[in-house]
Amino acid sequence: MRTASTLRFTLALGGMLLFAGCAVNPVTGNRNFTLMSEADEMRKGRQVAAEVSKAYAVYDDLPVLQKYVNEIGQKLAKKSHRPKLDYHFTVVDSPQVNAFALPGGYIYVTRGILAYLNSEAELAAVLGHEIAHVTARHSVQQYSASTAANIGTLLLGVFVPQLGGQAAQSLMGLANNALLSGYGRSHELEADRLGAEYLARSGYDPQAMIRVIGVLKNQELFDIEVAKQEGREPRRYHGIFATHPDNDTRLQEVVGEAKQYIVPGAIMDDRRAEFLRQTEGMAFGDSAVQGIIRGNTFQHKELDFTLSFPPGWRIRNQPDKVVALSPEGDGMMQLSLIGNPENSPADLARQRFRLEFSSEIVSTTSNGLPIAMVTSTAQDGKPFKAGVIYHDNKAYVLAGGSTSPDAFDRHLPVITSAINSFRPLTDAEQKSIRALEIRTITATKGTSYAGLARTSPLGQNAENYLRLLNGQYPNGEPVSGQILKIVK
Ligand SMILES: [Zn+2]
Known about the structure:
Layout: H1 13-16, E1 21-24, E2 31-34, H2 38-55, H3 63-78, E3 88-92, E4 99-102, E5 106-110, H4 111-116, H5 120-135, H6 138-148, E6 157-158, H7 166-172, H8 177-201, H9 208-230, H10 249-256, H11 272-279, E7 283-284, E8 292-294, E9 297-300, E10 305-308, E11 314-318, E12 321-325, E13 331-339, H12 345-353, E14 361-366, E15 369-377, E16 383-391, E17 394-402, H13 405-421, H14 427-432, E18 436-442, H15 449-454, H16 462-469, E19 483-487
Parallel strand pairs: 3-5
Antiparallel strand pairs: 1-2, 4-5, 4-6, 7-18, 8-9, 9-10, 11-12, 12-13, 13-17, 14-15, 15-16, 16-17, 18-19
Helix pairs in contact: 3-5, 5-8, 5-9, 8-10
Bound molecules: zinc ion.
Zinc ion binds near residues 129, 133, 159 and 191.
């Protein structure tokens, strides 16, 4: 759990308009109407990169992985239409599946997307696609178009537009669906086409572009299943794709054109083994600094607390809160860090929930921590129970409610025990908290995803997570001798 930083891109338009005019597009050689010179583009890229670094930490547990991703990126960039730009490739510490590019050559991949890739060629495809957004100046064109229409959206070199975190969402400023669906579709296809060309020129099979889009499409299909279980809207990965890449003739066509750039005599090895070697030991899911979910408990090393949500409830760790949902979807709990203690927990509770009757609050201690227990009715008429807890000079609210008074009565006992379970970590717990990691094993004759799922810490959907991790979703099985990624 991290307090979401509010990111705002105020665009200094005043001076910008003076530089409005046509610039030659590095890819097409045509003159595009654009408000931005190359110097402006660089400046804008640097500025937004500084904002990105506030929202996303660099993933620095594996310095060799940063180096590796940078090497592959630089190799592709040299074969691109803008080889002289100063490119920056960064692996960010996020479990989300995403990659994005900023104007001027700042390219980011999350460790979340790396986990689901299965070869160096697929990594190169992701990087090639993002490089293409830069070389074709998509974000600059989008920027110009949006500026002209007076809609402030800047960051559109996005591989996966829909991000989980709130900070990241405001970062993407995806206010404008019109841009993404109309304008965006042709840019995505162009990025796939150019990315495939850069792959071919760098000695990779350009078809890796199709495979990587398949990886994203499978994430989307899987998330539709998980969203159903969790009673929420599915995420949309690369929301522009209606069809699976295997059936997308337009995509097949543009990627197919890249064949002409294949270097004569190229071996086109996808370098799967090397990629798996480089990502071995990489964190998977939430990292220790973001708070970790194990079964029904949530533990936060830095903030030094643990709590147990009701058994069977689904827990989601978001940048600004932790949310748990009952299996039937009729009960919800939410933990938020609301700031520093002021006066007593009861005072804070009174303020926060606008309580009128003091009978609604009980001040007590729980696990040695001062807590105000609140039982009341929210403004929408629904009953809720909450604890305002002071711990280590911070104030937390843990609240639970239901869709109906009946459901609330049913859930009240487990909501109350969850609130009472909030406590500081023991020394032993402090020491043992760590993120899950990607490991590799060699499949033998009897290895199956169902079998691996039984001992996996990935929970209810482990079998499908393992298939996704190994590029065998939705119904592949390991073959004997295959190197498999698992999570430990
Ligand atoms: Zn894209």
